[in-house]
Amino acid sequence: APASITKIMTMLLVCEAVDAGQISLDDTVTTSPYASSMGGSEIWLEPYETMTVDEMLRATAIASANDAAVALGEHLAGTEAMFADKMNQKAAQLGMESTHFVNACGLDEEGHYTTARDIAVMARELLQHRWITDYTTVWQDTLRGGETELVNTNRLVRFYGGCIGLKTGTTDDAGCCVCAVAERDGMTLIAVILGAPDSDTRFEQTKQLLDYGFSSFMIYQPQQEEVQAQLTPVPVVCGAQTEVLPQIGELPKAVVRRDEAEEIEVAVELVPELQAPVLQGDSIG
């Protein structure tokens, strides 16, 4: 049981719909009586109360509001059940083989489950919509003209350097859970803790995981000079010129163990020859 970490998928589907132009952050969302009845973590939406997609998303991302998450799901798909179908379709598309969603908010329900790995996969996908961090990094905010205070349920956002989200969750079945994302030196790490006995434990274990990741791994990218030194002319058959000189495209990056970085060898493999015509931008090695 993933509890409110479920809302990562809810936010992902909202972000996709916004970026595809299907909905706008300024659109009005009307709260159904069903959505207003969720309980648990909530912003106390009244039946038929309206807010914008932006406001509902803030409530979902920052305060983990169940009522707002369900209202967003209904806005996108008509009913929560139909939204859950969309969630499962996306999960299948992402290769989340050990996941099945039944609701939009993560309240304990038979058949609603996932794994730490699958959560990391959907978190990575959500971060492709980078603007979601405008919501997930907020520590405190308000709604209803300042009447309703939102405080981020993920205290790592405030107390762990580089943390950019992403979602906490707590229910009887799930225990205390968190999916935390942090960035340092151009490297983004995702840590997932499920079933912790209490809130302090989940955050402490998450910090340990992220500390381990940042101290043990790094982003490695070859130096331009290393590659340039290995570039030799490639023969061209039936061309106006007999050879072309390769140019460096975008150099690849890889996450490697820090203690293995010095052992990495950079090798260039070029095609033996090219058939004319050869166009600028062609990949030749």
What share of the residues lie within helices?
25-40%
User: Helices and strands: which structural class?
Assistant: alpha+beta
Number of strands: 12
Please report the distance between the alpha carbons of the first and last residues. Answer: 47 Å
Assembly type of the chains comes to single chain
Order of helices and strands: HEHEHHHHHEEHEEEHEHEEEE
Q: What does the average pLDDT come to? A: 97
Global Rg: 24 Å
Could you list the spans in which at least 5 consecutive residues all have pLDDT below 50? none
Overall spatial form? elongated
Q: Count every helix, treating DSSP H or I runs of 4 or more residues as helices.
A: 10
How would a textbook summarize the main sheet? 3 strands, antiparallel
Strand content: 15-25%
What strand order characterises the main sheet?
5-6-7
